[in-house]
Structures are given as C-alpha cells and as structure tokens.
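User: Here's a chain of 804 residues. Predict its fold as tokens.
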Amino acid sequence: MLTLFRWLLRLTVAMILLLVTGTVLIWYFAIRSLPDYDAGYEMAGLSAPVEIVRSTENVPHIFGQSDEDVFFALGVTHAQDRLFQMTVLRRAAQGRLSEIYGSSAFALDDLARRLGLYDRAAASVEAQDPEALAALEAYSAGINEWIRQVNEGAMGKGAPEFFLFPDQIAYWQPADSLAILKLLAASSSRSIEEEVLRARLSLAWPEHGPELQSPDGTARPSYSSLFPGARLGIPQSRRTPGHPMDLRGFLRPGMGLGANGFAAASERTAANGSLLANDLQAPLTVPSLYYLVRLELSTGGAIGATIPGIPVLWSGRNQHLAWGLTPAAVDDADIYMEEVKPGASDSYRGVSGWTQFQTERTLIRIMDGQNQTITLRETENGPLVPLIDPGLQDVTPYGHVASLRWTGLSRQDRTISALIGLMRSGDRASAMGAMAQTVAPAMTVTLADSGGVQQFTAGAVPQRAAEHPTGGGMPAPGWLPEARWTGIAQAADLAPGTPSGQDMTIATEEARDGTRYKRLSYLLEDREIHSRDSFIATQLDVVSPAARALLPLVGANLWFSGEPAAAGTPERQRQDALNLLAEWDGEMSEHLPEPLIYAAWMRELQKRLIQDELGPLADDITQLRPAFIDAVFRNRNGAARWCNIIQSAPDEDCTTIARQALDRAILDLTDRFGPQVTSWRWGDLHQARHDHPALGRISGLGWVMNLTQSVSGGEFTLARSGLLGGGDNPYEAVSGAAYRGVYDLADPDSSVFIISTGQSGHPFSRHYDDLAELWRRGEYIGMSLDPDLARAAAVGVTELIPAK
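Assistant: Prediction complete.
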C-alpha cells in the first residue's frame, strides 16, 4: 500500500512539473512574438532609413523619405501587430480557411472559391495606376521583410496563434490586398439576402408575405408566377443563430456592413472650420477589424483607420482634407435561376438556347478531414453560388441552379487605386476625381476641406431594363434577355451628390427614410452651430427613434388599465412596465430597465404577428422591422390582417396581440432577473462580445482572448449595436462602430479617433485591449500630425535601415 502511495505521489508531482513546464514554454514562445518597438532592423527593399514612432496608445507614426518606403513600413507595422489577422483575412478571400479550422469552415471556402475572389483580384492587379501599384508592391515587401525577420530571429512565429494552427505563412503579394478588398466588398452588400428573403416570403404567403419586407406596398410579381411549380414546401429554418465567431475570417459575404458619415461647413461651426464625423460598423471581434496609423507621404501627413492587409486609410484626414466612407444603398447584385438541361447537367438554358457551363475543378484541403474537390461552374450571368445564402435552396426550383451577377466580380477593379488616390488628395475636387475609379464596394463619400463639405456616391451601379421581371428585387429567370443588366454605370454620373454650396451633409447605409437617417438629420439640423463636441455627442447618441415611434402606437390602448393590480401579480408587473415606458424618452441606456422591456416586447410582438402566417420561416426573421409593425398597427393597406391568428376561431385584434406579447416578454424577463421590474437593466443582456475568431471558442482560452462589455444603444440608434436576434441571448450586441473618428479642420490636432479593442492582436500585449474601455465609455484619443507631439509621448521608436 505504501509503495502504491509513493508511485501515485511521484506521478502527481511529475504531472504538476509537466504542466508547469508546458505553461512556461508556451508563455516563453508566445512572449517572443511580441515585437520590440525600440529595436532597429536592417531590411532589404528600403531606399532610405524609416522611423516608426509609436504613441502612448501604440499608434505608429511613419516617417520616410519616399512614399514607397512609407508603405513598406506600413506593411511592417501591420505585420508586427496583426500578422495572424492578416493571414486569416487572406485565407478567407482565397477560400483556404479549412486548412486551419477544419471542416467547420468548408462552406465559407466553397463560397469564396465559387466567387473567385482571389482570381479576380489577381487579374485586377495590372489594372491599377502606377502610384497604387508601387504602393501595393512596397507594402507587400514590408510584410515579407517582417516575416523574414521573424523566421531568422526565431521571434515566436510572429503571433502566438501560429503555435496552435498549422499555418505556413506564405509571402505577401499585391493580389492578397486586392482579394481582401473584394472580400470586404462582398461583406458590405445586402442585396442577395434581401432578394432571397423576398422570394421566400412570396412563396410562404403570395398575397401578403412580402409586406414584411416592403410595407410600403411595392408591387412585384409573385415568385411562383416567375417559376411555375416553385414551392416552398415545408419551410425549415435555414439560419442557426450564432455569434460573428462563425465568420472565422473576420468578414463574411452578405454580412451588410454599416456606417454613418456627416459633415458641416465652416459657416455652421463654432470655430469656423469644417467638421466631419465617420464611424465604421463591423462585427465586434478582437482584435478590431481596424487599425490606427499615421503616414507621412510626399503629399503630406495622413492619419486615420486602416484594415490590416490593405494599404489605405478608410477614414481620416490629411493636412487639408477629411474624408469618411459609408456603404451605399446600391443594389449591386442579382441572383438568376438557371434552368439545367434535362439529362445533360453540363448545359443550361441561355438567351440563345442550351449553353455549356464553363467548368473548373478545385481542391479544398481540410485539416484533420477528407479533402474535398468541388466543381466550379459559370454561366453568362456569373458563377453558380448554391451556398451564398442559407435560404437559397428554398427558392431554387427543381431542375434549376442559382447564379450570381455582382459588380465586385470585375477583373478590372481599380477601387484600391481610388482609395490610395483619396488619401493623397488635397481638396474635394481631386478626391472626387480619384474616387471615380471605384467599382466595389459602392460607397457614399463624405468630404470636408477649408472650402466646405460635399458628399457623393462612388462605385459601379447595375442598370436594369424597365421591363425587368423583378426589378432586381427577387431572383429572376436567367434565360430572359430583359432580366439581364443593360450596363454598369458610375454612381457619381447617376447622382452627382450634394452641391458644393451645401453647408451640411449626411450619410448612413440605410435609405433616406430609415429611422437612423431621420434621427441623424434631426440632431444636425436642430442646432444652427456645431462643434467637435456636438459631433461627438451625435455620434454617440443612443436614443432609439424606432422606440419613440412604435411605443405610442403599439401601446395606445394599454397605457391605462384601471385600478392598480395587487403587488406580485402579472397584471401589476404589466402596469409597472407600462408606467416606465410611458415616461421613457427612448434612450437605450445600459443602466435602465426600459430598453430591455421595450426590446423584449417588440421581439415577442413581431414573432406573434408573423409566426402563424409564415410558419417555421418566421424563425429566420430575427431582426426587428419597425416599418412593418408601424404599417400593421396603422392598418396601412389592410396590414392589420397580420394581427389575426389564423389557427384560432376568434378574430384577434392588434391590441390583444400587443398585450399578449408584453405579458410573454415580462414572463421571460422575470425568469431571468426576478419579478421586480424596476431592477432590470438593459446592460444585463445587451453586452458586446468581442470574440477572437480563432481562439475564442477553445476551452480555457476564451476567457483570455475574448472581451465582454455591457453597452448602451441598439439596432436603430446612431451609436449602433446590432443584436444577435436568436439563441439564449438574442439581445447580445454582435456588431457596432469598430472605428469612430471626428475631424476638426479648424484645429486639426484636436481631431479624435478610437477603435473597439486595442492596436495589437497579441493577447500578452498591454495594447491588446487598452482602448476597449475608452470605446465602451464613448471616449476617444487624439492623434496629431505634429512629429514633435508624436515623439514626446512615444512608447517606442523603431528604426528601419536599408540592408547592406
């Protein structure tokens, strides 16, 4: 017995020693990948020394003697802080995520290969202007020199993630940056999701289903009339609610990125200088999609937000010009249903008859799984994309396959030349000229200089015939000539934008009649004179115009319900909730109970309105649609019909449905937080989860890699935080303003900036999350173009020296 005890003791001690040794080794190798910001490096490819001064917040200020050297150093800084993120973005665009994530990423790889993002990006390299091509090549050389330094200096593979994932770091090419830009363009578009949902609604309830998406009563043919015999069958939920962790590569086609941009000319500002504000909304990941940087170019200093992997400032300012970008509400893509020839799967019906698919086979390698060979097929309209939307199979008729035409499939895409030209521009006129080259994504560009402000849309816009069978609103028969695009125009030619004399300009990614656009317009026009602080307050506004519009309408017959009910009863809870909402101004503060009651009520209400008419299809519709609820409760075009439950004998009215929805919402919240209504808090459920797309779900690592914060705001506030919409916590914030900037041209160095996490992607760096709490509180950091100010508080100065 004593011998057994001794052996057990020895084994326990050995296991503890192995665990400690393993932990120390992991820490040692991981910590070696932290870059030394005070080091000097000899690097091939430089023409002269470059200085990288890193401010207190780890924002690199890059000083070089040529633009090529500055872009080279930008590649070095991106690789120092975000190398793993860059390689994952590149893999997502290439369709090679399965090589590190396994079979769970196969669907994303399948789609990226069918879209041909990388091949089309590679074809577009030679279309760039000489300045952009030189910048791309220098940027790639800088990344590759840092990879070489990491390999030769045994610097921990460049990032700790590379110890856990079998990733061989291939050298960077200019096509890699263009491919990530195409992935971003695909992620910006919502067209496909909207087309597919509209078709599914038409099949579920041909007469009135599309009202959910178009409550204005826009007339379109029923989907079954376009494809006789098309049936939704037994609708099944195609969406498994999940976190943006499902992105795997930080971006996913069809995501629908957002932004706000607004500006005021000097005559509308307190300091007599133009103001511009821009926030870029993206999935809340860690690290953030964006990275702050300052570049000293031959045209002067430029400072703002970049995306690691792409050498451009998406939003920022230089000495004379400020700019902001917003995804434009452009229908840039169409789905076509292609009829396959019976008995000959290699042919489809074209305009001129049966036509053979263009076919190519490609291999997707899968870590720890069976490699998959897929067949890529392309039609006259574009590539076949069966997995582009989870609901697409519901609307694909028997004997048909779905193809895609999208502006981003261009092989002569000069968008990156446009963006590089934008940040070199010294005034609005030159900026507009540079952005005329834009293809995808289509963007609303907001500009400000000493002469005023201007706004215009840049990008390719499909032209459709008046007799187009769906107007681009639903999938169309691919063989009909009238369904084909008649051409592609430049957005600026179709709508030149605001006139140069405009003193205020506004942009969001939603239509002009959207709730956030109206709120933004109200806040800007409500003041005659603006300041930097008023622009910051507008950017951080958390009042929900949707709540202000819906609550008086939905609760019109519920506010007064007789004598107070007995304490502790459901009726008393309802009265308490209604009393709170009656005095509420719509502020979606994390510290208040009203936003939580409102959000839960509207969620249950919409579910009850659509569940019986749409069946399981309703499970896919997780985002609130205020315009639809407004139309129902105003009985616009008879929309109150949605309030009647088909399966029940009595005819329910909207007041009854509203009361039942509120009771159900209160019951759910009571189960979560107890019966005291006034003790509930929006922030208890409305939390922003910044998850690491690679390590966030690995047991034991998630608590180190991920960030969770309670936040204010909601889906329809200017400080937007998109809700998950499903799962155990449908109120979780999964997207938001990953970057915010406010640029004051009266005092440029008082301009302010913030990203949602920190500059470094390394979890052992103090700059991994040092900006996250500032972002949560609505605070910013300053970034100056004054070299002396940058050096005064530097946390490190890196010297890059040309190799001998």
